[in-house]
Amino acid sequence: MPKINFFTEDINYTLKQKQKIRLWIIATIKEEGYNLEELNFIFCSDDYLLRINQDYLKHNDYTDVITFDNAEGLKMIMGDIFISVDRIKENAKQFKSNMETELCRVMIHGTLHLLGYKDKTNAAKTEMTAKEDYYLTLVLV
To answer: For residue range 86-97, what is the model confidence (pLDDT) as tens digits?
Structure first.
């Protein structure tokens, strides 16, 4: 049975509508032609995610999400997605969005990385953003 787990590190945060979000993420993975083995979302602070960014990616800046792909088979999803709740709050203000929508955007962004989407070039970013927008319409129904 595929699993989606939600954890917190160094903060108090409770995700709302966990089951709805689980079903949405599973539907996204299936629509993209992948199978879910296990996916962990870890909600944390800016400082916690900065340390991960420094230790594992050798980057020294704040970010909203870092994704680790642990899958061993083709078309399988197994990974850890770390999300800074501090960044989500800031992004929501900056983009004049609400926190729930911004959180869903970042959750699906991390999931799309596990599905093979990249965001390093302008063309790849455009494709990723279009996918995010599409899948956001499905969760917000």
So the answer is: 999 999 999 999
This prediction has a pTM of 0.95
Amino acid at 9: E
Q: pLDDT per residue over 107-138, tens digit each? A: 999 999 999 999 999 999 999 999 999 999 99
Would you tell me which CATH number, out of the four given (1.10.3210.10, 3.40.390.30, 3.90.1150.10, 3.40.50.300), belongs to the domain 3-139?
3.40.390.30
C-alpha to C-alpha distance for 93 and 44, rounded to whole angstroms = 18
d(CA 113, CA 68): 9
Comparing CA positions, the residue from 70, 75, 9 lying closest to residue 44 is: 9
